[in-house]
Amino acid sequence: MAGAYDDRDGKIWMDGKLVEWRDANVHILTHAMHYASSVFEGERAYNGKIFESRRHSERLHYSASCIDFEIPFTVDQIEAAKYEVMKANGLTDAYVRAVAWRGAGPDMGVSSARNPVRLAVAAWEWGNYYGDAKMKGAKLDISKWKRPSPETIPVHAKAAGLYMICTTSKHAAEAKGCSDALFMDYRGYVAEATGANIFFVKDGEVHTPMADCFLNGITRQTIIGMLKDRGIAVHERHIMPEEMEGFQQCWLTGTAAEVTPVGQIGDYNFEVGDMTRGIAEAYEALVRA
After folding, report:
1. Is residue 77 located within the same domain as residue 147?
2. Is residue 1 part of a domain?
3. pLDDT score of 261
4. Could you tell me the pLDDT band of residue 135, with boundaries at 50, 70 and 90?
5. How far apart are alpha carbons 39 and 41 in whole angstroms?
6. Nearest alpha-carbon partner for 142 in 247, 242, 210
7. 94-104 confidence digits (pLDDT tens)
8. Chain-wide mean pLDDT for the chain?
9. CATH number of the domain bearing residue 264
10. Residues identified as active-site
11. Distance of CA 244 to CAs 177, 241, 248, 249, Å?
């Protein structure tokens, strides 16, 4: 599938039924467009099966509760919708996007309690998120923005508003010839990339930032479990930026990113080593099992 995302053949599930792709529209006064009252999930299907599908649907409900609305479809109904969309579009290997938002209604200010909550699910073919960086290692810029304190935003929700600084940071990184950008958090610790969690290797052990002010990704949790099953020590902790000089390997994890090696972050360089390649191959085998 190619072309602009609003001009394609296929079906999208909206509010309980399949509609033509080009007809999957919302009104210009949709609350989410003005006030970011939207949550979403990004998922990948392999050989006809969505990896950790139910956990994603459960997290969608959780994210909605974090920004004060309730999705009018159960987890089971969302699960059925995702597979219905894949079937309708003839997809077995695909990216699946479920999104819930406050729509247009009687309220058009910050408050929107009377507006209907809507839900849509789309799916499409999507290759490597970072292109050839999946093989040779991504190059990351360091963002000028910081991941904020949990006292300021619902940091553990996958909410659209939290991605504003991700878009601007990724644009700035791409303008410098980088694949992505790395955030520090409000305290100055290493946090995450714009759409992926980060891992480092030093002397055969793995270090990853403590997910106390950003999304604890489902892929991140999966990789930590895989490493521990292999007897590899994993340290979830606060990491200072200058520590990157002593790390030997680095990779990113996420539904879209899968496991992507990192070759450079700012002035710091990393090898695409055996542990990085091994965990990437093991993850690929797991999702296709």
Report:
1. no
2. no
3. 97
4. confident
5. 7
6. 242
7. 999 999 999 99
8. 96
9. 3.20.10.10
10. 158
11. 21, 6, 8, 10
